[in-house]
Design goal:
By secondary structure, this protein is mainly alpha-helical. It is 71% helix and 0% strand. It has 2 domains: 1-41; 43-78. It has 4 helices and no strands.
Length: 78
Amino acid sequence: MQALWAPWAAQTSFTGAGALASQPRRAAAQVHALRKRFQLHLSEAQCVEVVLGMIADSLDAWRTRQYDYYQRVLNGIL
């Protein structure tokens, strides 16, 4: 999982120009939230299990159903 994070982290600098460069506390909080969300401490098998659980949880979620309805009505998708 570290390999997935490394390219993003290498390209991201909060000392240069950018939306979060002038807000280091906010930037640090967002990076912390991303690291927590990516769950870099998990093995690949554990990561697969977590992702499959998130997919299962979202399949019948209200937001998912609403978005699917929106896509169907607006774009004829699904």
